[in-house]
Amino acid sequence: MNRNLSFAARRGVAGFALMLAGAAVVPACAQAPRDAIAAGAFAYDRAAPLDLRDSLESVDGDVEVHAISFASPRGGRATGLLFVPRGGAARKPGIVQLHGAPGSARSIAAGSLRLARRGAVLISVDAPFARRGGGMVTFTAADSADHVQLIVDLQRAVDVLLARSDVDPARIAFVGGSYGGAVGTMYAAVDPRPAAYVLFVPDGGMVSHVTDAQGQRGEQLSGIPDAEWNRWVAAMRPVEGIGYIARAKPGSILFQNGRTDPFVPAYKAEALHRAAGSSQTVRWYDSGHRLPEQAAVDRYQFLHERIGTAPVTAEERAAAAAAPAPSDPVGGRRAARVMEAG
Predict the structure, then answer these.
(1) Residue 238, in any domain of the structure
(2) Which domain holds residue 80?
(3) Is 251 part of a structural domain of the chain?
């Protein structure tokens, strides 16, 4: 936990929190204290220059891998990787992808390559904590500012895709796993441009992640003074995806969750699914946080149906059926500290 933020930095991000939230802590599934979308928290100037910087790093088979960065409307530069399949149709589907935590665009590069080989131009975005290094959670209002910046940067990544002549604007998707999926619950409510959102092993957001069914914080967080905890919850709750996911386009989301997930227990996943509404697609797997290969097959099929990536082959289905069950990470990691890459 980082407690080294300067007073000025804390004061600056607290201003954003106070604009949106009251001091009261509310249950996880309750209406957000203020409407962050209506308040313009995620708005930006789409006409502003992208200032895209693009450097070809390698060619992996039939896919080019580029290191990219672009101007973030909330300050600094967003970074990530761009995967461009060679050949194929003149206009391709586009995918924006977000990693788990801890992690980065590079930590999920193998999965990004698999998606790009299905015919999609893909941008994998680094979360703010991955850009600067260090811990992902400070338990201050700075976390709220990071979350808002990330949602804006994901929208800006779509702008980058739409600026390309080889991307079909009608065939855009978002894919996020674990932390990336939880962020995606807010993103799906904010940006209607993607035709599909694939959210695997997500919960409803950071507050949902570190509290129990009664909205109480876990024992591992008992060292945070009550006043600091309440300020953090008041800053984060207004941008918690579970409070907005019902605004996502009907039928546009695929949820994928494991029945024995130690990081996202079934009751949290079910609460998110209920909040999203019955039109969304839900797939459960007999696994923990790391889903079986069948989940990847289901993901590919959903994307094929929605944005026209390559269809799943009989060989892929057979390989998924024969694949061994995955094992979840073990050790001293706690659910309050990490939202693992799925």
Answers:
(1) yes
(2) 12-22+31-214+229-322
(3) yes
Q: Indicate the average pLDDT of the chain.
A: 87
For residue 222, being part of any structural domain is answered with no
Residue 334 included in any domain:
no
In angstroms, rounded to a whole number, what is the distance separating the alpha carbons of residues 229 and 20?
17
Q: Is 316 exposed, middle or buried (0-12, 13-18, 19+ CB in 10 A)?
A: middle
Tokens 């993607």, residue? Answer: 194
Token readout for 71 is 């101007």
Q: What angle do CA 159, 245, 182 make, to 5 degrees?
A: 75
Distant-in-sequence, close-in-space partners of 33: CB < 8 Å, separation ≥ 6:
20, 21, 22, 24, 26, 234, 237, 238
Which whole number is the average pLDDT over 90-95? Answer: 96
Q: How many CB atoms lie within 10 A of CB 25?
A: 17
- Per-residue pLDDT tens over the stretch 218-234: 888 989 999 999 999 99
The domain that holds 210 is classified in CATH as 3.40.50.1820
Cβ contacts of 145 within 8 Å, gap of 6 or more: 12, 13, 16, 74
**Paired sense of beta strands 63-71 and 77-85, if any:** antiparallel
Q: What is the pLDDT of residues 267-294, one digit of tens each?
A: 999 999 999 999 999 999 999 999 999 9
pLDDT of 213: 87
Which residues are bridge partners to 199 per DSSP? 176, 255
Dump the DSSP string for 273-320: HHHH-TTSEEEEESSSSS--HHHHHHHHHHHHHHH--PPPPHHHHHHH
Number of domains comprising the chain = 1
> Are 201 and 128 spatial neighbours (Cβ–Cβ below 8 Å)?
no
Contacts of 251 (CB under 8 A, 6+ apart): 279, 280, 281
